[in-house]
Structures are given as C-alpha cells and as structure tokens.
Write a structure and sequence with these properties.
The protein is an alpha+beta fold. The protein has three domains: 183 residues, no CATH class; 68 residues, no CATH class; 90 residues. Helix 8 crosses helix 10. The two termini are 28 Å apart.
C-alpha cells in the first residue's frame, strides 16, 4: 500500500516546483566559485564550474577591479546562492524518500528541456516518468527507483525541432557526457538510441507504431525513433511534471498517471519471456500507481479505462490477472479495479 509524504514536505515540494517553473535554462554544471589569475601583471577574475564529468571550466569575467567585472561577479554569486539553496532543499526531499534521478540522467533530461523539446510536446516516459508521477501524487517510495534508460516519446502529430538546426545528439552532449549512437543489429537501420560511453546511461527515442517495432524519422531532431504498439494511448494525454535531480528540478511532460498505470499492464504482455523481471516490474509499478490514483481521484482511472483500445482488452485482462498478486496490502478499491480489468473481453 502506498505511503504518503507529510504535508510539510509536500508543501516544500510544491514551493520548489513553482520556482522551477520559472526557469528558461537549467545550468548543466555546478553552481561555481570565484577564481583569480594574474597574467602579465594584470589580475583577472574568473568563474569556475565543473561539468558532469568532473571537468573544470573557467569563464573569464574581466579585469578584477573593473566595474563591469564586479557587476558580473555579483550576478554570478547571486545565481550560485540560489542554486545552492535549491540543492539544499532538494537534499531534504531526497532524504525524505522522494523519487530522485541520478545526476547524469537529470542533467541529460535538463539538456533536452533547454532545447525546448518538452515545451513542444515531447513526453518523458518509463521509470523516470514513474518517479515524477509518484512525487506529484505525494507517494513515498520504499526505495528509490533505479534506471539507466531515459525514454523520450513523441506523437506523430508533434513536430519536434531543435533551434539552430542542431541534432538531439549535439544537445545531450551539452552535458559534457560522451554520448554515442547505439548501432542497430540490422546495419541498414538507423540508430534510435544514444549511450554514454563507459556507462549504462542510455537515451531512447520512441513514437507510436506497431508490433513490428519499425524505425521512424524525426527530421527536426536529426534522429530516428522506434515505433511501439499502443504507445499513442500512453502519450496522447500528457501533463506537466517535475523531475528531481541531485541539484536541479527539471520541468518535463509526463503521461497522465492513470494511462501510465494501465499502459504498464499492456507493456508487461509485450515483453519477451527472457524479460520476465522487467514484466514483473511493470506490474508492480502499475499496482502502486493505480492505488495512489484511486486514492486521489477515481474518475481519472475510469476515463483511462474508457480510452483503452479495444484490441488491447485481452492484454490488459491478462496482465491485470497477473498483477493481483502484487495487490496484497493495497486498499480494496485497487483489488476491485484489477478484478474489473481482468474481466475485460
């Protein structure tokens, strides 16, 4: 059964996301500190930051005693103080059991935010979306979710484009992390994923498709995506959400929570037998999400059930029947809803 954060922590979370909503660009490095150098007898002021890789970067602010330099330094210190205050508040949420993404994932998703893709309709899906949705519902995780995949979805109706003709690969490299295209098994098919060299971190592009899992172009990103069955059901109804990272809160878009829960049931039936562990994880996430939503607003679940594609009924029924074993300890309305879903035909 889901447990919920105390009102004081939910109020802190609400305050932080209100601040995060005002961001137009999220720094992809540490808040920074002042540094000084003397070159040929002249003192210069620099602002020193560190990228996700730990690489140092120094920005020259100007001659140390110059009025313009002092003004720039004051602004940098003000921005740094705000960033550190947010990081301290985020630490409070992290220690209290809010879902928090690892630093590299959060910065990669922040780079996608900076490129304006969520404002254009891109949707964060997968386990990162699960964490975002649970935070929004006030649910406390028994243990932080773990994932090495960043799944970004787009509908066929949304034309994503990056300013200045940049590619998605160029955008995620803004983090300083060494991303590379992941080759497909079929050398004739273009890549739909990007992986950080030397790490498990991966970015996958996804669009609605069929059980053939065809590759589709996204020209505005200079990229390609994998077409997934029933994916349009998941992302055709989305809403604002907020991903918590180590030091940042990133505004994103996520699927409507009830559709996320029911789509997890469908996905569990699409996984090959070798991925049984992932299928079980799908069922567990679905039950937790359903329980939290039913506690908040049962109408959301009813609307999501009404929207299930007819040809997915059998899959939902099969998965709901299997999910019943994970409903032990959850409220009766969760069990009743799963039994209703298991009876779909």
């Amino acid at each position: 059964m889901p447990t919920y954060h105390p009102d004081a922590l939910q109020t802190l979370y609400a305050s932080l996301i209100e601040t995060a909503d005002g961001q137009t660009n999220i720094p992809l490095q540490t808040p920074g500190t002042v540094s000084y150098k003397t070159v040929k007898g002249i003192n210069y002021t620099y602002w020193r930051v560190y990228k996700a890789t730990g690489q140092r970067a120094d920005e020259i602010l100007g001659v140390t005693d110059a009025e313009e330099t002092l003004a720039r330094l004051e602004q940098k210190r003000s921005d740094s103080a705000q960033a550190r205050a947010m990081a301290e508040s985020i630490k409070t949420l992290r220690l209290a059991g809010f879902a928090v993404a690892d630093n590299s994932s959060a910065l990669t998703i922040a780079s996608i935010f900076n490129a304006g893709l969520f404002r254009q309709g891109a949707v964060l899906v997968g386990s990162h979306a699960f964490g975002v949705l649970l935070n929004g519902l006030g649910v406390r995780l028994a243990a932080n979710y773990l994932t090495s995949d960043i799944d970004i979805g787009s509908t066929a109706q949304v034309s994503l484009a990056i300013p200045d003709g940049r590619s998605l690969l160029e955008v995620i490299k803004d983090t300083g992390l060494p991303f590379l295209e992941v080759p497909e098994l079929d050398p004739g098919r273009p890549a739909t994923s990007y992986k950080q060299r030397g790490s498990m971190l991966k970015v996958d592009l996804l669009v609605p498709g069929s059980e053939h899992y065809e590759t589709k172009p996204l020209p505005g990103l200079k990229a390609h995506a994998t077409g997934l069955p029933y994916f349009d059901y998941l992302i055709n109804e989305s809403e604002p959400g907020y991903l918590i990272g180590k030091d940042h809160i990133v505004p994103v878009r996520v699927p409507a929570p009830a559709r996320f829960a029911l789509h997890k049931l469908i996905v569990s039936t699409l996984r090959p037998a070798a991925f049984g562990v992932k299928a079980n994880k799908d069922l567990q996430q679905s039950v937790v999400m359903l329980s939290a939503i039913l506690n908040r607003n049962q109408d959301w679940v009813e609307a999501a059930i009404d929207a299930i594609p007819r040809d997915a009924y059998q899959r939902v029924a099969q998965a709901a029947d299997h999910a019943l074993i994970y409903a032990e300890g959850h409220p009766d309305f969760t069990l009743d809803t799963l039994e209703r879903l298991a009876a779909l035909d």
